[in-house]
Amino acid sequence: MFEISLVQLSAIFLIILLIIKRPRVAENEPPLVPYTIPIIGHTFSYFFNAKKFIKECREEYGDAFSIYVFGNIMTVLSNEAVSEMFRNHDDFDFIKAIHEDIPLHKFLIYNGGMTEEGNIFNAKTAREQFSGKLDINMPVVQKYLEIGMNKMLGDCSVPKTIYNAWFTINEIIALPVTNILVGEEAAAHDDIVKSFGILAFDMGHLLVIPPIFCFIHQKLHDFVATLPIRFGYNPVRYHRRIAMKRLRPVVEKRLRERKKLGDNYKSYNDLLDFYMDQPNFDYSKPYNFHYHVDNLFIMVFASIHTTSRTAAVALYDMAARPELVEELYEEAVKVDKERNGQLTVADVKKMIKLDSFVKETLRHNDNITALPHYVKPESFTFSSGLTIPKGRKIITYIEDVLMSKENYGEDAEEFKPFRFVDQDSPATKVERSYIIFGGGRHACPGRFFAINETKLFLHKFILRYKVTTQSGKVEDKFRIGPFALPSRKALVFENRV
Protein backbone atom coordinates (compact mmCIF):
# COMPACT_ATOMS: atom_id res chain seq x y z
CA MET A 1 0.00 0.00 0.00
CA PHE A 2 1.37 3.41 -1.02
CA GLU A 3 2.00 5.71 1.92
CA ILE A 4 2.95 9.37 1.87
CA SER A 5 5.18 10.50 4.69
CA LEU A 6 4.90 13.82 6.50
CA VAL A 7 8.08 14.96 4.79
CA GLN A 8 6.61 14.19 1.37
CA LEU A 9 3.38 15.99 2.22
CA SER A 10 5.35 18.99 3.40
CA ALA A 11 7.38 19.01 0.20
CA ILE A 12 4.22 18.83 -1.93
CA PHE A 13 2.62 21.64 0.07
CA LEU A 14 5.76 23.77 -0.28
CA ILE A 15 5.88 23.24 -4.06
CA ILE A 16 2.20 24.18 -4.41
CA LEU A 17 2.76 27.22 -2.23
CA LEU A 18 5.75 28.27 -4.32
CA ILE A 19 3.68 28.05 -7.49
CA ILE A 20 0.70 29.90 -6.04
CA LYS A 21 2.69 32.62 -4.28
CA ARG A 22 5.24 33.26 -7.03
CA PRO A 23 5.05 37.03 -7.57
CA ARG A 24 4.27 38.21 -11.07
CA VAL A 25 4.48 41.75 -12.39
CA ALA A 26 3.73 43.10 -15.86
CA GLU A 27 6.37 44.82 -17.97
CA ASN A 28 4.95 48.29 -17.43
CA GLU A 29 4.66 47.94 -13.65
CA PRO A 30 7.21 49.34 -11.19
CA PRO A 31 10.15 46.92 -11.16
CA LEU A 32 10.12 44.06 -8.66
CA VAL A 33 13.31 44.11 -6.60
CA PRO A 34 15.08 40.73 -6.97
CA TYR A 35 15.21 38.45 -3.93
CA THR A 36 16.88 35.15 -3.08
CA ILE A 37 14.60 33.42 -0.56
CA PRO A 38 11.43 31.91 -2.09
CA ILE A 39 8.11 32.78 -0.40
CA ILE A 40 9.91 34.87 2.25
CA GLY A 41 11.07 37.37 -0.36
CA HIS A 42 12.12 40.71 1.15
CA THR A 43 10.26 40.20 4.44
CA PHE A 44 13.33 39.95 6.68
CA SER A 45 15.07 42.91 5.06
CA TYR A 46 11.93 45.05 5.27
CA PHE A 47 11.06 44.17 8.83
CA PHE A 48 14.52 44.07 10.41
CA ASN A 49 16.57 46.51 8.33
CA ALA A 50 14.04 48.70 6.55
CA LYS A 51 16.11 51.89 6.59
CA LYS A 52 19.06 50.42 4.67
CA PHE A 53 17.00 48.11 2.47
CA ILE A 54 14.47 50.65 1.20
CA LYS A 55 17.16 53.28 0.70
CA GLU A 56 19.19 50.93 -1.49
CA CYS A 57 16.09 50.01 -3.49
CA ARG A 58 15.23 53.67 -4.02
CA GLU A 59 18.76 54.48 -5.21
CA GLU A 60 18.69 51.66 -7.76
CA TYR A 61 15.08 51.65 -8.95
CA GLY A 62 13.85 55.23 -8.55
CA ASP A 63 10.58 56.72 -7.27
CA ALA A 64 8.50 53.57 -7.69
CA PHE A 65 9.46 49.94 -7.13
CA SER A 66 7.85 46.79 -5.76
CA ILE A 67 8.95 44.45 -2.98
CA TYR A 68 7.65 41.07 -1.86
CA VAL A 69 6.80 41.01 1.86
CA PHE A 70 4.66 38.64 3.92
CA GLY A 71 3.56 36.80 0.79
CA ASN A 72 2.34 39.84 -1.14
CA ILE A 73 3.70 42.35 -3.62
CA MET A 74 3.75 45.90 -2.27
CA THR A 75 4.70 48.95 -4.32
CA VAL A 76 6.78 51.65 -2.64
CA LEU A 77 6.40 55.25 -3.84
CA SER A 78 8.53 58.30 -3.23
CA ASN A 79 8.73 61.98 -4.18
CA GLU A 80 6.97 62.77 -7.49
CA ALA A 81 5.05 59.48 -7.47
CA VAL A 82 3.70 60.34 -3.99
CA SER A 83 2.62 63.80 -5.12
CA GLU A 84 0.83 62.27 -8.08
CA MET A 85 -0.94 59.80 -5.80
CA PHE A 86 -2.24 62.64 -3.63
CA ARG A 87 -3.40 64.58 -6.68
CA ASN A 88 -5.42 61.54 -7.75
CA HIS A 89 -6.67 60.62 -4.29
CA ASP A 90 -10.01 59.24 -5.53
CA ASP A 91 -8.17 56.48 -7.40
CA PHE A 92 -6.68 55.12 -4.16
CA ASP A 93 -8.31 53.49 -1.15
CA PHE A 94 -6.89 54.57 2.20
CA ILE A 95 -9.69 53.03 4.27
CA LYS A 96 -9.10 49.47 3.05
CA ALA A 97 -5.40 49.77 3.88
CA ILE A 98 -6.13 51.13 7.36
CA HIS A 99 -8.61 48.34 8.06
CA GLU A 100 -5.97 45.81 7.08
CA ASP A 101 -3.44 47.30 9.52
CA ILE A 102 -5.94 48.39 12.18
CA PRO A 103 -9.19 46.36 11.85
CA LEU A 104 -11.43 48.98 13.42
CA HIS A 105 -14.49 47.31 11.87
CA LYS A 106 -13.82 44.33 14.16
CA PHE A 107 -13.62 46.50 17.28
CA LEU A 108 -16.24 49.15 16.52
CA ILE A 109 -19.13 46.85 15.74
CA TYR A 110 -21.85 49.52 15.76
CA ASN A 111 -20.47 51.88 13.12
CA GLY A 112 -18.34 49.49 11.07
CA GLY A 113 -15.07 51.24 11.82
CA MET A 114 -13.79 53.64 9.17
CA THR A 115 -16.29 53.33 6.34
CA GLU A 116 -16.05 55.69 3.36
CA GLU A 117 -19.16 57.54 4.49
CA GLY A 118 -17.92 57.60 8.07
CA ASN A 119 -14.54 58.93 7.00
CA ILE A 120 -16.19 61.88 5.29
CA PHE A 121 -18.20 62.59 8.44
CA ASN A 122 -15.15 62.25 10.70
CA ALA A 123 -13.19 64.64 8.50
CA LYS A 124 -16.03 67.14 8.77
CA THR A 125 -16.08 66.63 12.52
CA ALA A 126 -12.35 67.30 12.86
CA ARG A 127 -12.56 70.34 10.62
CA GLU A 128 -15.57 71.93 12.33
CA GLN A 129 -15.28 70.83 15.95
CA PHE A 130 -11.52 70.78 16.50
CA SER A 131 -9.63 72.98 14.04
CA GLY A 132 -12.65 75.18 13.37
CA LYS A 133 -13.11 76.03 17.05
CA LEU A 134 -9.54 76.78 18.07
CA ASP A 135 -10.48 80.04 19.80
CA ILE A 136 -13.06 78.18 21.91
CA ASN A 137 -10.98 75.05 22.48
CA MET A 138 -7.63 76.57 23.42
CA PRO A 139 -8.73 77.97 26.83
CA VAL A 140 -10.04 74.50 27.69
CA VAL A 141 -6.76 72.95 26.58
CA GLN A 142 -4.71 75.39 28.67
CA LYS A 143 -6.79 74.86 31.79
CA TYR A 144 -6.68 71.09 31.73
CA LEU A 145 -3.07 70.78 30.58
CA GLU A 146 -2.07 72.55 33.78
CA ILE A 147 -4.34 70.31 35.85
CA GLY A 148 -2.93 67.26 34.09
CA MET A 149 0.68 68.31 34.69
CA ASN A 150 -0.05 68.92 38.37
CA LYS A 151 -1.55 65.45 38.63
CA MET A 152 0.96 63.44 36.60
CA LEU A 153 4.22 65.33 37.22
CA GLY A 154 3.51 67.67 40.13
CA ASP A 155 6.38 69.00 42.19
CA CYS A 156 9.75 67.94 40.81
CA SER A 157 11.94 69.81 43.30
CA VAL A 158 13.39 66.37 43.83
CA PRO A 159 14.12 65.17 40.27
CA LYS A 160 11.77 62.46 39.00
CA THR A 161 12.93 59.73 36.66
CA ILE A 162 10.26 58.34 34.34
CA TYR A 163 10.71 55.49 31.88
CA ASN A 164 8.55 55.31 28.76
CA ALA A 165 7.36 58.87 29.30
CA TRP A 166 4.84 58.54 26.47
CA PHE A 167 2.33 56.94 28.85
CA THR A 168 2.64 59.83 31.32
CA ILE A 169 2.30 62.44 28.58
CA ASN A 170 -0.63 60.54 27.11
CA GLU A 171 -2.52 60.83 30.40
CA ILE A 172 -1.84 64.58 30.50
CA ILE A 173 -3.06 65.06 26.92
CA ALA A 174 -6.12 62.88 27.53
CA LEU A 175 -7.56 65.29 30.12
CA PRO A 176 -8.07 68.40 27.92
CA VAL A 177 -9.12 66.33 24.91
CA THR A 178 -11.73 64.43 26.92
CA ASN A 179 -13.19 67.74 28.07
CA ILE A 180 -13.43 68.92 24.46
CA LEU A 181 -14.97 65.63 23.37
CA VAL A 182 -17.65 65.12 26.01
CA GLY A 183 -17.71 68.26 28.15
CA GLU A 184 -16.65 69.04 31.69
CA GLU A 185 -19.52 67.22 33.41
CA ALA A 186 -18.62 63.81 31.97
CA ALA A 187 -14.86 64.47 31.98
CA ALA A 188 -14.99 65.14 35.73
CA HIS A 189 -14.95 61.34 36.15
CA ASP A 190 -11.44 59.90 36.22
CA ASP A 191 -12.51 56.59 34.71
CA ILE A 192 -13.62 58.05 31.38
CA VAL A 193 -10.46 60.18 31.08
CA LYS A 194 -8.31 57.13 31.79
CA SER A 195 -10.38 55.04 29.38
CA PHE A 196 -10.00 57.51 26.53
CA GLY A 197 -6.28 57.77 27.26
CA ILE A 198 -5.56 54.04 27.04
CA LEU A 199 -8.07 53.08 24.35
CA ALA A 200 -5.49 53.11 21.53
CA PHE A 201 -2.95 51.20 23.61
CA ASP A 202 -5.49 48.51 24.49
CA MET A 203 -6.41 48.08 20.83
CA GLY A 204 -2.74 48.05 19.91
CA HIS A 205 -2.17 44.85 21.87
CA LEU A 206 -4.10 43.00 19.17
CA LEU A 207 -2.30 44.71 16.31
CA VAL A 208 1.26 43.58 16.98
CA ILE A 209 0.80 40.05 15.64
CA PRO A 210 3.24 39.72 12.70
CA PRO A 211 1.31 38.83 9.53
CA ILE A 212 3.20 35.55 9.09
CA PHE A 213 0.08 33.74 7.87
CA CYS A 214 -0.03 36.13 4.92
CA PHE A 215 2.67 33.89 3.45
CA ILE A 216 -0.22 31.49 2.83
CA HIS A 217 -3.12 33.92 2.39
CA GLN A 218 -4.19 37.34 3.68
CA LYS A 219 -7.53 35.98 4.85
CA LEU A 220 -5.80 33.36 6.98
CA HIS A 221 -3.87 36.08 8.77
CA ASP A 222 -7.05 38.11 9.23
CA PHE A 223 -8.70 35.04 10.77
CA VAL A 224 -5.81 34.31 13.17
CA ALA A 225 -5.31 37.95 14.12
CA THR A 226 -8.96 38.31 15.07
CA LEU A 227 -9.23 35.05 17.01
CA PRO A 228 -9.22 36.86 20.38
CA ILE A 229 -12.21 38.88 19.20
CA ARG A 230 -13.97 35.74 17.95
CA PHE A 231 -13.60 34.25 21.41
CA GLY A 232 -15.12 37.30 23.04
CA TYR A 233 -12.11 39.49 23.79
CA ASN A 234 -12.85 42.95 22.49
CA PRO A 235 -11.10 45.65 24.54
CA VAL A 236 -13.44 48.29 23.15
CA ARG A 237 -16.32 46.61 24.99
CA TYR A 238 -14.80 47.69 28.32
CA HIS A 239 -14.29 51.26 27.15
CA ARG A 240 -17.74 51.42 25.60
CA ARG A 241 -19.26 50.37 28.92
CA ILE A 242 -17.50 53.23 30.74
CA ALA A 243 -18.48 55.75 28.05
CA MET A 244 -22.13 54.70 28.14
CA LYS A 245 -22.15 54.87 31.93
CA ARG A 246 -20.78 58.43 32.04
CA LEU A 247 -22.42 59.86 28.91
CA ARG A 248 -25.98 58.55 29.27
CA PRO A 249 -26.87 60.84 32.20
CA VAL A 250 -25.37 63.83 30.40
CA VAL A 251 -27.26 63.10 27.17
CA GLU A 252 -30.54 62.57 29.04
CA LYS A 253 -30.03 65.82 30.93
CA ARG A 254 -29.37 67.73 27.69
CA LEU A 255 -32.39 66.17 26.01
CA ARG A 256 -34.56 67.43 28.86
CA GLU A 257 -33.00 70.88 28.54
CA ARG A 258 -33.62 70.93 24.79
CA LYS A 259 -37.25 69.95 25.27
CA LYS A 260 -37.81 72.53 27.99
CA LEU A 261 -35.91 75.46 26.46
CA GLY A 262 -36.59 74.87 22.77
CA ASP A 263 -34.94 77.61 20.70
CA ASN A 264 -33.46 79.11 23.87
CA TYR A 265 -31.30 76.04 24.42
CA LYS A 266 -27.64 77.03 24.53
CA SER A 267 -25.44 74.43 22.88
CA TYR A 268 -22.43 73.03 24.71
CA ASN A 269 -19.15 73.46 22.87
CA ASP A 270 -18.19 69.81 22.85
CA LEU A 271 -18.32 66.91 20.44
CA LEU A 272 -21.11 65.18 22.33
CA ASP A 273 -23.51 68.06 21.61
CA PHE A 274 -22.39 68.03 17.98
CA TYR A 275 -23.41 64.36 17.72
CA MET A 276 -26.75 65.16 19.35
CA ASP A 277 -27.35 67.76 16.63
CA GLN A 278 -26.97 65.21 13.86
CA PRO A 279 -30.18 64.22 12.00
CA ASN A 280 -29.47 60.52 12.59
CA PHE A 281 -29.23 60.93 16.36
CA ASP A 282 -32.26 59.20 17.94
CA TYR A 283 -31.75 58.25 21.55
CA SER A 284 -35.00 56.28 21.59
CA LYS A 285 -33.76 53.75 19.04
CA PRO A 286 -31.83 50.66 20.19
CA TYR A 287 -28.08 50.94 19.62
CA ASN A 288 -28.35 54.41 18.09
CA PHE A 289 -26.31 55.87 20.93
CA HIS A 290 -23.83 52.98 20.60
CA TYR A 291 -23.27 54.05 16.99
CA HIS A 292 -22.35 57.59 18.04
CA VAL A 293 -20.11 56.35 20.85
CA ASP A 294 -18.18 54.28 18.29
CA ASN A 295 -17.83 57.41 16.16
CA LEU A 296 -16.54 59.14 19.26
CA PHE A 297 -13.93 56.40 19.74
CA ILE A 298 -12.50 57.06 16.29
CA MET A 299 -11.98 60.69 17.27
CA VAL A 300 -10.47 59.58 20.60
CA PHE A 301 -8.06 57.35 18.71
CA ALA A 302 -7.07 60.16 16.34
CA SER A 303 -6.90 63.08 18.76
CA ILE A 304 -5.24 61.69 21.91
CA HIS A 305 -2.90 58.94 20.76
CA THR A 306 -1.29 60.80 17.85
CA THR A 307 -0.94 64.12 19.69
CA SER A 308 0.61 62.53 22.77
CA ARG A 309 3.04 60.63 20.54
CA THR A 310 4.19 63.90 18.93
CA ALA A 311 4.52 65.59 22.32
CA ALA A 312 6.49 62.64 23.72
CA VAL A 313 8.91 62.56 20.79
CA ALA A 314 9.38 66.32 21.15
CA LEU A 315 10.29 65.95 24.83
CA TYR A 316 12.89 63.31 24.01
CA ASP A 317 14.25 65.56 21.26
CA MET A 318 14.58 68.45 23.74
CA ALA A 319 15.96 66.43 26.61
CA ALA A 320 19.43 65.88 25.14
CA ARG A 321 19.75 69.45 23.82
CA PRO A 322 19.90 71.89 26.78
CA GLU A 323 20.84 74.84 24.54
CA LEU A 324 17.63 74.30 22.57
CA VAL A 325 15.51 74.27 25.72
CA GLU A 326 16.92 77.59 26.87
CA GLU A 327 16.09 79.31 23.57
CA LEU A 328 12.57 77.93 23.68
CA TYR A 329 12.27 79.02 27.33
CA GLU A 330 13.22 82.62 26.47
CA GLU A 331 10.56 82.72 23.76
CA ALA A 332 7.98 81.13 26.08
CA VAL A 333 8.62 83.63 28.89
CA LYS A 334 8.28 86.59 26.54
CA VAL A 335 4.94 85.45 25.11
CA ASP A 336 3.63 84.35 28.52
CA LYS A 337 4.34 87.74 30.12
CA GLU A 338 2.51 89.57 27.34
CA ARG A 339 -0.67 87.59 28.05
CA ASN A 340 -0.27 86.89 31.76
CA GLY A 341 -0.34 83.17 31.12
CA GLN A 342 -3.60 83.10 29.12
CA LEU A 343 -2.62 82.55 25.51
CA THR A 344 -4.83 82.99 22.46
CA VAL A 345 -4.35 81.16 19.17
CA ALA A 346 -2.58 84.28 17.87
CA ASP A 347 -0.16 84.12 20.81
CA VAL A 348 0.64 80.48 20.11
CA LYS A 349 1.34 81.46 16.51
CA LYS A 350 3.91 84.01 17.72
CA MET A 351 6.13 81.23 19.08
CA ILE A 352 7.91 80.70 15.78
CA LYS A 353 10.88 78.90 17.32
CA LEU A 354 8.60 76.44 19.06
CA ASP A 355 6.64 75.91 15.84
CA SER A 356 9.84 75.25 13.89
CA PHE A 357 11.01 72.79 16.55
CA VAL A 358 7.69 70.89 16.43
CA LYS A 359 7.87 70.70 12.64
CA GLU A 360 11.45 69.42 12.74
CA THR A 361 10.42 66.83 15.33
CA LEU A 362 7.64 65.65 13.02
CA ARG A 363 10.01 65.62 10.05
CA HIS A 364 12.38 63.41 12.04
CA ASN A 365 9.62 61.00 13.12
CA ASP A 366 11.88 58.14 11.87
CA ASN A 367 9.15 56.11 10.19
CA ILE A 368 10.58 54.57 7.04
CA THR A 369 7.23 53.96 5.35
CA ALA A 370 3.71 55.23 6.03
CA LEU A 371 0.36 56.19 4.50
CA PRO A 372 -0.70 52.85 2.94
CA HIS A 373 -3.28 52.80 0.15
CA TYR A 374 -4.80 50.34 -2.30
CA VAL A 375 -5.38 51.02 -5.99
CA LYS A 376 -9.15 51.28 -6.58
CA PRO A 377 -9.75 51.33 -10.37
CA GLU A 378 -8.80 48.62 -12.82
CA SER A 379 -5.31 50.08 -12.74
CA PHE A 380 -3.57 53.43 -12.29
CA THR A 381 -0.95 54.77 -14.68
CA PHE A 382 1.48 57.44 -13.52
CA SER A 383 2.73 60.19 -15.82
CA SER A 384 6.01 58.24 -16.02
CA GLY A 385 4.12 55.45 -17.80
CA LEU A 386 4.37 52.99 -14.94
CA THR A 387 1.09 51.22 -14.16
CA ILE A 388 -0.05 49.75 -10.85
CA PRO A 389 -2.76 47.09 -11.13
CA LYS A 390 -6.08 47.09 -9.33
CA GLY A 391 -5.90 45.85 -5.75
CA ARG A 392 -2.16 46.46 -5.35
CA LYS A 393 -1.10 47.80 -1.97
CA ILE A 394 1.14 50.83 -2.11
CA ILE A 395 3.02 52.56 0.66
CA THR A 396 4.92 55.85 0.86
CA TYR A 397 8.66 55.96 1.45
CA ILE A 398 8.05 58.82 3.82
CA GLU A 399 11.61 59.09 5.12
CA ASP A 400 12.87 59.79 1.60
CA VAL A 401 10.30 62.56 1.13
CA LEU A 402 10.96 64.17 4.51
CA MET A 403 14.76 63.97 4.18
CA SER A 404 14.95 65.14 0.58
CA LYS A 405 18.12 67.15 -0.05
CA GLU A 406 16.40 68.73 -3.02
CA ASN A 407 13.89 70.37 -0.67
CA TYR A 408 15.81 70.71 2.59
CA GLY A 409 19.41 71.14 1.47
CA GLU A 410 22.58 69.15 2.01
CA ASP A 411 21.95 69.06 5.77
CA ALA A 412 18.47 67.54 5.30
CA GLU A 413 19.20 64.59 7.59
CA GLU A 414 20.52 66.81 10.38
CA PHE A 415 18.17 67.76 13.23
CA LYS A 416 18.03 71.57 13.11
CA PRO A 417 15.25 72.76 15.44
CA PHE A 418 15.06 76.28 14.01
CA ARG A 419 15.28 75.25 10.36
CA PHE A 420 11.87 76.76 9.55
CA VAL A 421 12.09 80.07 11.45
CA ASP A 422 11.15 82.93 9.09
CA GLN A 423 10.53 80.46 6.25
CA ASP A 424 6.74 80.89 6.06
CA SER A 425 6.50 77.16 6.60
CA PRO A 426 4.51 76.43 9.78
CA ALA A 427 4.07 72.93 11.15
CA THR A 428 0.49 72.83 9.87
CA LYS A 429 1.37 73.64 6.27
CA VAL A 430 1.02 70.71 3.87
CA GLU A 431 3.76 70.68 1.24
CA ARG A 432 5.09 68.17 -1.30
CA SER A 433 8.12 67.60 0.91
CA TYR A 434 6.16 67.58 4.18
CA ILE A 435 3.47 64.90 4.12
CA ILE A 436 3.15 64.12 7.81
CA PHE A 437 -0.56 64.93 7.57
CA GLY A 438 -1.07 63.45 4.13
CA GLY A 439 -1.41 65.63 1.07
CA GLY A 440 -3.77 67.35 -1.30
CA ARG A 441 -7.34 68.25 -0.45
CA HIS A 442 -7.66 65.21 1.80
CA ALA A 443 -4.85 66.22 4.18
CA CYS A 444 -5.74 65.75 7.87
CA PRO A 445 -8.22 68.52 8.79
CA GLY A 446 -7.48 68.09 12.51
CA ARG A 447 -3.82 69.07 12.19
CA PHE A 448 -4.42 72.67 13.26
CA PHE A 449 -5.83 71.54 16.59
CA ALA A 450 -3.16 68.86 17.04
CA ILE A 451 -0.26 71.24 16.40
CA ASN A 452 -1.68 73.98 18.61
CA GLU A 453 -2.31 71.55 21.45
CA THR A 454 1.20 70.11 21.13
CA LYS A 455 2.70 73.60 21.21
CA LEU A 456 0.63 74.58 24.23
CA PHE A 457 1.70 71.43 26.05
CA LEU A 458 5.38 72.14 25.34
CA HIS A 459 4.96 75.81 26.23
CA LYS A 460 3.43 75.05 29.63
CA PHE A 461 5.98 72.31 30.23
CA ILE A 462 9.02 74.45 29.38
CA LEU A 463 7.87 77.19 31.76
CA ARG A 464 7.60 74.72 34.65
CA TYR A 465 10.18 72.02 34.13
CA LYS A 466 13.61 71.10 32.87
CA VAL A 467 14.02 67.73 31.23
CA THR A 468 17.11 65.66 30.46
CA THR A 469 17.78 62.14 29.30
CA GLN A 470 19.16 59.93 32.04
CA SER A 471 21.98 58.88 29.73
CA GLY A 472 22.82 62.44 28.71
CA LYS A 473 22.57 61.58 25.01
CA VAL A 474 19.93 61.60 22.28
CA GLU A 475 17.88 58.42 22.71
CA ASP A 476 16.92 56.28 19.76
CA LYS A 477 13.26 55.66 19.14
CA PHE A 478 11.67 52.28 19.76
CA ARG A 479 11.36 50.46 16.44
CA ILE A 480 8.85 47.91 15.18
CA GLY A 481 9.88 47.01 11.66
CA PRO A 482 9.77 50.15 9.48
CA PHE A 483 7.84 52.11 12.13
CA ALA A 484 9.15 54.20 15.03
CA LEU A 485 7.60 54.98 18.41
CA PRO A 486 8.82 57.26 21.23
CA SER A 487 11.85 56.01 23.11
CA ARG A 488 11.27 53.94 26.24
CA LYS A 489 14.45 55.18 27.92
CA ALA A 490 14.35 57.30 31.07
CA LEU A 491 13.71 61.02 31.19
CA VAL A 492 14.55 63.10 34.26
CA PHE A 493 12.13 65.90 35.20
CA GLU A 494 13.06 68.77 37.49
CA ASN A 495 11.40 72.03 38.54
CA ARG A 496 12.72 75.00 36.59
CA VAL A 497 12.71 77.25 39.66
TrEMBL record:
SUPFAM superfamilies: Cytochrome P450. GO terms for molecular function: heme binding; iron ion binding; monooxygenase activity; oxidoreductase activity, acting on paired donors, with incorporation or reduction of molecular oxygen. Heme binds at residue 444. Transmembrane segments: none annotated. CDD domains: CYP503A1-like. Residues 1-26 form the signal peptide. Keywords: Heme, Iron, Metal-binding, Monooxygenase, Oxidoreductase, Signal. It comes from the Eukaryota. InterPro entries: Cyt_P450 (IPR001128), Cyt_P450_CS (IPR017972), Cyt_P450_E_grp-IV (IPR002403), Cyt_P450_sf (IPR036396). Gene3D superfamilies: Cytochrome P450. Its cofactor is heme. Pfam families: p450. Belongs to the cytochrome P450 family. This is Cytochrome P450. It comes from Rhizophagus clarus. The lineage of its organism: Eukaryota, Fungi, Fungi incertae sedis, Mucoromycota, Glomeromycotina.
